[in-house]
Structures are given as structure tokens and as C-alpha cells.
Write a structure and sequence with these properties.
Archease, Possible Chaperone, Chain: A, domain 1
Length: 135
């Protein structure tokens, strides 16, 4: 489940999922919905191989990867296929396509992923993550 939070200057996203891996997939979907209005199709793939010291840092690194692909290649993710995820690593594939103005509207300029209120926590039967984007 994705829940948008009010924030004074930026946009915050809170995600709750049953599985740890699903947290990252939902994060990519949320970020894509900030970038464009419309749906990308899974026509191309980009590999993701991230190693960071903590799960929250993995979210930031994943966001930076998605934003870099959008800025340099105009690649819009449709979804993330997670191959392996642990407390300090995430391996998978971003499936998506280049930005198509005939089917997609540019929604919001996302400048970056911040560490403000950043967290990933295990709540027993669910995982919750919170990320704030600089827009």
C-alpha cells in the first residue's frame, strides 16, 4: 500500500508491504507516478545492483538510480522485479520504456531523494518505509 504524506516543501511517500522485497517494488511505482501521469509498459530492462549499509540507504540508492535513468535516458519504470534483497543489498531489474509524450504526461520534476524522515522498519507482519523527495 502506498500513502502520500503532506510535507511543507517536498513530497513524502510512505509505503507499507507484507514482504521486504515488495517495499522496493512499491517505491519504484510511487516514484514513477510522481514523474509521469500515465503508465509505462515493460518493454525494456535496466539492471539494478545496489549495496548499501542499511535498508533505508537502499531506498535512496534505488531512487537515485531511477532518477538518473529518467534524466539521462528518459527511461520510465513500469515496475521492479526483485531478484534478491537483504538488509544491505538489492538486485533486480527495472522494466519500463522511454518517455512517450503521446501516452504520458510529464507530471513533476523530482530533483532528488532526501534523507529527511527516511526510514525502513519491520513492524512484525509488515514492512514500512518513508521517503521524502525534493521537488
Amino acid at each position: 500500500m502506498i500513502h502520500w504524506l503532506d510535507h511543507t516543501a517536498d513530497v513524502s511517500l510512505e509505503i507499507t508491504c507484507d514482504r521486504y522485497e515488495d517495499l522496493f517494488a512499491a517505491f519504484v511505482s510511487g516514484l514513477a507516478s510522481l514523474l509521469i501521469s500515465g503508465n509505462a509498459k515493460p518493454r525494456e530492462a535496466r539492471d539494478v545492483a545496489l549495496k548499501e549499509p542499511a535498508p533505508a540507504d537502499l531506498l535512496v540508492a534505488l531512487g537515485r538510480r531511477v532518477l538518473a535513468l529518467f534524466e539521462t535516458e528518459r527511461f520510465v519504470p513500469a515496475r521492479l522485479q526483485v531478484r534478491s534483497a537483504g538488509p544491505a543489498h538489492l538486485f533486480g531489474r527495472l522494466l519500463g520504456e522511454p518517455y512517450d509524450p503521446a501516452r504520458m504526461d510529464y507530471h513533476l520534476e523530482v530533483k532528488g531523494v532526501t534523507y529527511h524522515d527516511l526510514e525502513v522498519v519491520n513492524q512484525g507482519s509488515a514492512w514500512r518505509g518513508r521517503v521524502t523527495f525534493d521537488v
